[in-house]
Amino acid sequence: MRMPDPDADVIARRAAIARALRRIVPGEGVIVDEDALRAYECDGLSAYRQPPLIVVLPSTTEQVSTVLRYCHDNGVKIVPRGAGTSLSGGALPLADAVTLGLGKFNRILDIDIENRCVVAQPGVTNLAITTAVQDQGFYYAPDPSSQIACSIGGNVAENAGGVHCLKYGLTTNNLLGVEMVLMTGEVIRLGGKHLDPGGYDLMGVVTGSEGLLGVITEVTVRILRAPETARAVLMGFPDTDSAAATVADIIARGIIPAGLEMMDKPAIHAAEDFVHADYPLDVEALLICELDGPEAEVTHLIERVEAIARDKGATSLRVSTSDAERALFWAGRKAAFPAVGRISPDYYCMDGTIPRHALPTVLKRTAEMSTRYGLRCANVFHAGDGNLHPLILFDANVPDELERAEAFGAEILKLCVEVGGVLTGEHGVGVEKRDLMGEMFSDIDLQQQQRLKCAFDPGQFLNPGKVFPTLHRCAELGRMHLSGGSMPFPDIPRF
Ligand SMILES: Cc1cc2nc3c(=O)[nH]c(=O)nc-3n(C[C@H](O)[C@H](O)[C@H](O)COP(=O)(O)OP(=O)(O)OC[C@H]3O[C@@H](n4cnc5c(N)ncnc54)[C@H](O)[C@@H]3O)c2cc1C
């Protein structure tokens, strides 16, 4: 993985930068000790590691603003970091950059049941939002499997999804407002408690921007009333094709489950050994389908889903009879990544999205690649959204296995694009998919996206080396930048 060459001048100024940061964030908010920096050297994509220059842990928006302004004025890059669970290397440090951790922004600021929203600091965990409102009968719908650890700020930066996003949308569909600090230290607010902010959809731009546009310091999210009933159906199939056909048919018939997830045999066995969710072990594929809403509707929809599954050849069918049993069905799915971590020294989690009809083709070709690369692969994914998560099993201590895993993963993602899909569903581009962006976007598309980046961060200080395969200087992209009160090309008419 090639990262931008570190700036030797910045590295030489490390002690002075640390002193300046300590003046802004006193106490224990600045980390320079080599051992302590190790804790930040990677995120969830642990194949790539790099200790940061310095870690700074501010606790107020004002401190974030002053840190960014200082770094901007002194030519120092910034890598924002939430909980560090990114699977695409978005929070991977740079040798010449300050990692700015949001862990101290851990307070829920306002629970506003009347307006159905919660205002939280970005370091609050995803699950803590639901926990804070569930006694009053509400919840926050997007539920990444990492929800006990990942931060709501990181969710916004990655546009995170989860098993309930099929029906309730991803982070972007549940976000109402953000406060964000620009690299110059300016603080902006987008959206709020109200719906439909005027002007361009800048919040849409910021959601999924992977720390490249600014540092999010406050988040307002929509909360939903917990459904009257929720039940899950566990369906086992003799092959992945019949499971995939069931997924396609459920959606084609106009049923929108709250969640519709698939696991293949290696994933089922790994999850069962870890969590003991009582999954059937004699099947090749498992679907978990959750229906929620009024009791009568759920009962009706469950009957329809069961009929579809039987028609497609399901060999086992179980409907949850209590909330505890429903939670157990999900426990295996939600713990599938760590479960796979128990059966292999390392794994590489991919994240491509495809049109649902392509599921059987892509799963079959992934199995062929698995044989060709000589690496096992477990599949566990958001089948209803066509969002795949092949987990490639490898051992980094075996020479060339990481390289083979990377090549295998790249081939899967190229296949996703080939069948009409996209490189990422919810884990972001980061460093992992950066060099594959050309598979999906033309040079013109990519340059246009970079112009947007330049509008927010013309000096390219924020998270460089992520997302874009080529670093263009903003000047090359024809940016209009007001500097020292004078604008270039003053003869051009402006309105
Ligand atoms: C076991 C496991 C299961 C997972 N399951 C899912 C899943 O089901 N769905 C899903 O979508 N993801 C999943 N993920 C991936 C990950 O949890 C999400 O991408 C999550 O949103 C990252 O949040 P974080 O706080 O850990 O962010 P980090 O990893 O710290 O950062 C991620 C990116 O966001 C930027 N960033 C973080 N905070 C801010 C901020 N305040 N302002 C600006 N930029 C910021 C960083 O620069 C980086 O680019 C999983 C990860 C693991 C390890």
Automatic annotation (TrEMBL):
Keywords: FAD, Flavoprotein, Oxidoreductase
Pfam families per the UniProt record, alphabetical: FAD-oxidase_C, FAD_binding_4
GO molecular function: FAD binding; oxidoreductase activity
Cofactor needs: FAD
FAD-binding PCMH-type domain sequence ranges: 48-226
Top-rank lineage group of the source organism: Bacteria
InterPro entries named among the record's database cross-references: FAD-bd_oxidored_4_C, FAD-bd_PCMH, FAD-bd_PCMH-like_sf, FAD-bd_PCMH_sub2, FAD-linked_Oxase-like_C, FAD-linked_OxidoTrans_Type4, Oxid_FAD_bind_N, Vanillyl_alc_oxidase_C-sub2
Name of protein: Glycolate oxidase
